[in-house]
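Support reply, case 0932

Customer input (verbatim):
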Amino acid sequence: MSGMQLILVIILGLCGYLALFRYVYDHAANRAAFPILAIFLLIIYGVLFGGLMMVLSQLGSAEYTFMGILLLGACVTVFVMLAYLMRHFREMNKGALSLFVMYLLVVAYLTIFNRKGQSDTSILTGFTSFQEAIEKHSLQPLNHFLLNIIMFMPLGFFFAMMQPDQLNHFLLVAPISAMLSVTIESTQLILHLGQCDLEDIVGNALGGVLGLVVYRLYARFFQQDEQTEEEDEDEDEDEDEDEDEED
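Our regenerated output:
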């Protein structure tokens, strides 16, 4: 397993631990004893995660081991996301939820249903586009990477818009974007629809994060203007009511 693969696996493991840490903290009966519980939880999680990596490493090559770990994380992430959406359906912005679902259907069509079978499919774990761009002193080899970023920007935007108070966090958007990308890439590999490229996963995750940044800028400037206009309208109505009472 290369250094980049190892770094991404460690990031995945930390994201999983942080999600578990947050869940246990929110549901802890005695938070005074939580530091000890967190250490105990870290030990158990580390043993289980390390054991899983050892088992997967015995099943095939390093590339398939790496993708197996990511696919497992993707399945867990997608399941948790669906469970959360079902549990908090009533609290969510229905318009944003509709846009999010429509966006996922469009992405599924473009990346899976609109593709034809290929005989040459493999796992690509190197960042060849960046190497080629450096060698040629041109940004053209990065076009595919940039398109992957753009394609996943709506995910971060619509995801945060569904429930801004709960879902507007980088630690949520980045793993979900990456794991959804892993699901797509793995499906393409299994169905022989294309290459499973680590570069695409990184680009998609970066796109989701940038989409969240765009949403925060939108919420900061446009929603504040809307709130200001509503407050001005309320003040005008109050003034009119006061004048009517005086008359």
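We compared this against your earlier run and they match. Two observations from our side: Strands lie at 123-124, 196-197. The mean pLDDT is 78. Please reopen the case if you see a mismatch on your end.
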